[in-house]
């Protein structure tokens, strides 16, 4: 089965402690695990796709959440520890699901990808809704539990359960 690593919202506003919607310590702690996932994908020549919040200055999502990841701002940049390689694509998005209003599905189809491996933040928001949309479109989904995080630990745990029990994603828990 052809796989891709999909890196969700590893941006300053979510993962840097100075970011406007940062995940706090949970966001800092997840970075090494995501870096390991990137290293292993690159070693095995697994395609890597970054999906990144990139909002308009007056984006309607800001009716739900404080402004974050505005296009062109520091907060919308990928964190220094997890920068994409030269061949790796970045898909901007404006909603929780990386499939909504983007060409992610087309990119996956063009590369013959059948399974996406999701890492990043937040487990209960963009990771979960991207996983749901991937499943609706017939992709297999894997989620290494140590490489996703949220500002809300209980919501993170609930989302891992939803991913596994409802969406039948393969949630990998390191022992
Ligand atoms: Zn957003």
The number of distinct helices, counting runs of at least 4 residues, comes to: 6
**What's the CATH topology name?**
Rossmann fold
Strand content: 15-25%
N-to-C span: 25 Å
- Rg over CA atoms, rounded to whole Å, is 15 Å
Task: Looking at this protein, list some descriptive labels.
binds zinc ion; 7 strands; 175 residues; alpha/beta; Rossmann fold; 7-stranded parallel beta sheet
Summarize the model shown.
With 175 residues, the chain is of the alpha/beta class.
Describe this structure in words.
With 175 residues, this protein is an alpha/beta fold. The chain has one domain (3-172): 3-Layer(aba) Sandwich (Rossmann fold), CATH 3.40.50. It has six helices and seven strands; from the N terminus they run E-H-H-H-E-E-H-E-H-E-E-H-E. It has helices at residues 12-15, 24-29, 31-43, 104-110, 123-136, 153-165, and strands at residues 3-8, 48-53, 89-93, 115-121, 140-144, 148-149, 170-172. Strands 1, 2, 3, 4, 5, 6 and 7 form a seven-stranded parallel beta sheet that branches. Strand 4, helix 5 and strand 5 (140-144) form a beta-alpha-beta unit. Helix 5 runs parallel beside helix 6 (153-165). The longest helix has 14 residues, at 123-136. It is globular, with a radius of gyration of 15 Å. It starts with a strand and ends with a strand.
């Amino acid at each position: 089965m052809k796989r891709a690593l999909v890196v969700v919202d590893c941006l300053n506003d979510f993962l840097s402690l100075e970011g406007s919607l940062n995940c706090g310590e949970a966001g800092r702690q997840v970075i090494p695990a995501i870096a390991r996932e990137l290293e292993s994908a690159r070693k095995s020549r697994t395609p890597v796709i970054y999906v990144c919040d990139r909002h308009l200055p007056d984006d309607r999502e800001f009716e739900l959440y404080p402004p974050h990841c505005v296009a062109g701002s520091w907060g919308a940049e990928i964190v220094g520890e997890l920068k994409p390689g030269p061949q790796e694509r970045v898909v901007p998005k404006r909603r929780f699901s990386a499939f909504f209003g983007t060409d992610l599905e087309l990119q996956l189809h063009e590369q013959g990808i059948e399974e996406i491996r999701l890492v990043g933040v937040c487990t209960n928001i963009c990771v979960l809704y991207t996983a749901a949309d991937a499943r609706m479109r017939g992709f297999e989904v894997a989620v290494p539990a140590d490489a996703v995080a949220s500002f809300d630990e209980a919501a993170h745990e609930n989302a891992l359960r939803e991913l596994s029990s409802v969406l039948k994603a393969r949630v990998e828990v390191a022992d």
